[in-house]
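On clarity, I found the account of how folds are encoded harder to follow than it need be. What matters is that the chain and its backbone geometry are given together, residue for residue. For the editor and my fellow referees, an illustration may be useful. For illustration, here is how one protein appears when written out as sequence plus structure tokens:

___
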Amino acid sequence: MKVLNLDSLAKPRKAITINGVRHVVKDMTVEDFIEVARAAEKYESEDASISLLERFNESLNGVKRALPTITDEEIKKLNVDQLGAINKFIRDELIEDSEVQEVQEEEEGKQ
């Protein structure tokens, strides 16, 4: 009998450290994907009635969905470059290898 163990696929694969606090990046669920797709359709349109602030707030909501342990206070203290790096990291977009490498070395040292 073949068995597909989905539990093994649900293990955290990445984390972000902010001010010494590690936040595990939650894997995207089907529900999250639907929410992201709806937001993308709305905010990527050319609709002039959607303000820059609304688009920015949706970006913050995406971070909160992916990092459920992060607080509003922690997010508000980030600079814009940090927020951008978090968004790229969550979406698996390219970021500096040196930033990721430091985390890998930290993890190897703990084992």
Q: What stands out?
A: The longest helix spans residues 52-66. The chain has one domain: 6-95. The helical segments are 30-43, 52-66, 72-76, 80-90, 97-110. Strands lie at 15-18, 21-24.
